[in-house]
Design brief:
The chain is α/β, with parallel strands linked by helices. Helix content is about 55%, strand content about 10%.
Length: about 220
Amino acid sequence: MLTPRDRITGVATPKETATVFVVDDDVSVRESLEALIRTAGWQALTFESAPDFLAHPRHPGPCCLILDVSLPGLNGLDLQQQIRERTEMPIIFITGHGDIPMSVRAMKAGAVEFLTKPFNDDVLLRTIQQCTEHSRTVLREQAEISVLRDRYESLTPREREVLALVVTGLLNKQVGAELGISEITVKAHRGQLMRKMEADSLAALVTMSARLKLRTEEQI
């Protein structure tokens, strides 16, 4: 069942099991983490190096990454930079000999946690739970924005002009005066754009417009 927020875009919250990626060159660490992750109910995929991880197709579902800092070749911090656009994949760093500058760099770049080996399993599991929930939120937002963007792209140039003015609170008569068209024509365009955007009220249309505008600003 769709929630009131779902009805804006028709996108339901993803329910699939989250996947936890592990990148560590120590096979014993990979195996122990894989067992812990699977026991907790998540899927686990392990890699011994950053290149191996990068060669794997980008995951479409909820996920997070447990990443060793001191990897041979391309280290964990460098890998973090390479995948910084993957906002749907929160990163948990693990290390056997971390220092404050290293942890500060990782956290400033967006890491959720920086754990020193040996770490407490419960702490790690709680952090994974936090990360996977964040991943679901990001994926949901991306899906909703994609749907809204497709609807917006279906509008004609004139409908987009009417939309931009309507959401500011102008009346149809005022919109017509701004665009040099009749009030009746504005009403026709307004009805069409609301149908295409699947907005059942002006408030819903305002919300959609605001989210698209915020998304555009983020990409710029």
